[in-house]
Amino acid sequence: xxxxxxxxxGLRWTADAAQRRHGDSFTLTLGEGLSPYELxxxxxxxxxxxxxxxxxxxxxxxxxxxxxxxxxxxxxxxxDETAVARLTSAGFLPAPPVTIVxxxxxxxxxxxxxxFHCRTGRDLAALSExxxxxxxxxxxxxxxxxxxxxxxxxxxxxxPGLPHLTKGxxxxxxxxxxxxxxxxxxxxxxxxxxxxxxxxIPWEETEAELPSAALA
Length: 216
Known about the structure:
- This protein is of the alpha+beta class.
- It has a nine-stranded antiparallel beta sheet, sandwiched between helices.
- The protein contains nine helices and nine strands.
- Helices cover about 30% and strands about 25% of the residues.
- The protein has helices at about 5, 15-20, 35-40, 55-65, 80-90, 125, 170-175, 185-195, 205; strands at about 25-30, 50-55, 100-105, 110-115, 130-140, 145-150, 155-160, 160-170, 210-215.
């Protein structure tokens, strides 16, 4: 996906990029008033285990087999003992991590990106202690879900377009969001967040190195 293709898509490009790369699955989580390191700590990472990784490096680590030699990793100089030891002690090697959470920031918010899983969605209450938190996830089957917490309390969890599966306050009451069915539910909610919060996450920034944690 090029800069031209992502222009004008403040958050929606995360869903588009996932489909272009590996089918469907993605997670975008937002925590108000947090730094990237604070976000990672609140989902269980220790500072000494946080490593800067590009999206490409994270993707390589997630897709490798435990028996693969580390020389197969394009981003890593496998003869650099310091780099290998750091990745190993942080849980990125030798076995592939269950998930990698990469975190960045835009004014007023920290964001987290996961390629396949939704580990950050478990900790929305902790991520919302300074305001609001949102988690938008699409699984490998194309089903989407949204979670929202405020001031340390999970307010609602729902699947856009399937109101009978809502847990907590209905989305239209909690957030004023109604899915009209004209586009995928996760894309519709990302569009809603763009309008409500005025957020834009630069695609180029998320491709570059971001503080990252390997989590179970």
